[in-house]
Amino acid sequence: MEEQVKHNGEQKHNLNEVVVDIEHISKAFGSKEVLKDISLKLKRGENVVVLGKSGQGKSVTIQCIVGLLNPDEGTVKVFGDLVADMNETELKALRTKVGFLFQSGALYDSMTVRENLEFPLTRVLKMKDKAEIDQRVEEVLEGVGLLDAIDKIPSDLSGGMRKRVGLARTMIVKPEIMLYDEPTTGLDPITSREISELILNMQKKYKTSSIIITHDMECAKITGDRVVIMNDGKYIAEGSFDELQNSGDELVRSFFNTTT
Amino acid sequence: MAEQAIPGYKKWMESVGEQGVFFSRFFRNIFTGGFEWSEFVRQCYEIGYKSFMLVGLTSFIMGLVLILQLRPSMVDMGAESMLPKTLAVSFIREMGPVITAIICAGKIASGIGAELGSMKVTEQIDAMEVSGANPMQYLVVTRILATSIMVPILALMGDVIGLYGGFLALNFTDEISFSLYFHKCISSLEFIDFLPAFVKTIFFGFAIGFVGCYKGFHSNKGTESVGLAANSAVVTASLWIFVIDAFAVQVTSILFYR
């Protein structure tokens, strides 16, 4: 019997369904080849961690998924549709289903936390009922433990708080897929752990499938169902955190030793 | 030498192409989707109201200084009675619109370039785009339309304040009543003096908003790029103002003064 999950308490989905299918993509910036024949599948409800050193093209991979960048070769399919073939309207529709948490949080600094969270509700979901908007904003802020900061502006928030608000803003539209770009970079170890646990809690609560780009081993251990290691623009190993940590491959093992 | 010139030429052509695409995206976004009224009103306030003092003070000083500079020559020629007319024609046709536009290029185009450049560097524009919202509609359409509307209004106010500055300067040396001065100013002007001057300020406003938004939107990622975007926005917008002015003068001459 196929395992199934309800997304956001609505539709039932097959857990074996591949929601993101990256096949043999390559990308170069000028003469620098950043991605070299990368392939990756993300199943529904799964958390995949892409682990690697900085500047290895990890972020480029997830930017190709939302059409911020186009690969030079290969294909990216999301929910079975080719991203490269999508027109502006289709791309917009796709982006409402795919949440993207930027490394910096990317909060709109001219708006308060409340306005930041209202922005996708009024512009993307076209919600008009003020009471409903307020309820949703407060609910998601409570989920990240920052209800008190609702009327603050981003410059008054710490790095960890910005990431939490960024996560709340992304989660408020209830995406089916979440892409995290270095969610714990620049944070102290305690806050990093809190963010990693929050990612896991949000995944359980909203039943999302996630790709987490990181070089933080603890984040990878906490959040990842499956870990992919990237080196020099290629995926060199794949498996669970424990499998890779005890890998017979010296390069993979040394990778764990150098980054922990 | 020729080999070095080719990449520069290519880069320039790419930039022209990008500006064409940016313009068509701006134009398409005016009419598609929901218009961001609240952001548009906020931008009108930021651009118009907050520039009023600067434009007003500059125009006032220019009106005052022009009379002080012109007076000795006009007195020598026995044409001091022509001072209000000279000031009115030069200010309404040329000085007022150009001074206002140059001040706005320095204040507004640089502000927009720096703001959007900073949003680009901190990935706010990318965040807006991947969330499914439309940054062109929210950030670009509102700003360009606000400058296209507010710069002409500022220029009109600048004209009035500049003429008042001229009156005060004239009143230091020659006793002239306010009503006589303004009667002389207005009677020397025709509708045809106002219309081209007003129309060209709409284009000045458009150029200021468009260049500011384009430079900010296309700035590179890096803190240095924010400064470059602001600087480049001022220089390019100022240049465009003079180009538009030269073109407008030629068109006006052909249409109305032949």
Give a quick summary of the entry.
The complex is a heterodimer of chains A (260) and B (258). By secondary structure, chain A is an alpha/beta fold.
Kindly describe this structure:
Chain B: The chain crosses the membrane at residues 47-68, 138-157, 194-217, 237-257. Chain B: Keywords: Membrane, Transmembrane, Transmembrane helix. The complex is a heterodimer of chains A (260) and B (258). Chain A has nine helices and twelve strands. With 260 residues, chain A is of the alpha/beta class. Chain A has one domain: Rossmann fold. In chain A, the strands form three sheets. A six-stranded mixed beta sheet of chain A has the order 8-9-10-5-11-12, sandwiched between helices. Chain A has a four-stranded antiparallel beta sheet with strand order 4-3-6-7, covered by helices on one side. The longest helix of chain A is centred in the C-terminal third of the chain and has 18 residues, at 189-206. Chain A is globular, with a radius of gyration of 18 Å. Chain A starts with a strand and ends with a helix. The mean pLDDT of chain A is 86. Chain B is mostly helical and 258 residues long. Chain B has helices spanning 2-31, 37-47, 52-76, 83-121, 124-130, 135-173, 178-187, 191-217, 223-256. Chain B is elongated, with a radius of gyration of 21 Å. Chain A binds chain B through residues 66, 68, 92-93, 95-96, 98, 100, 102-104, 106-109, 119-120, 123-124, 126, 169-170, 173, and chain B through 34, 119, 122-124, 126-134, 138.
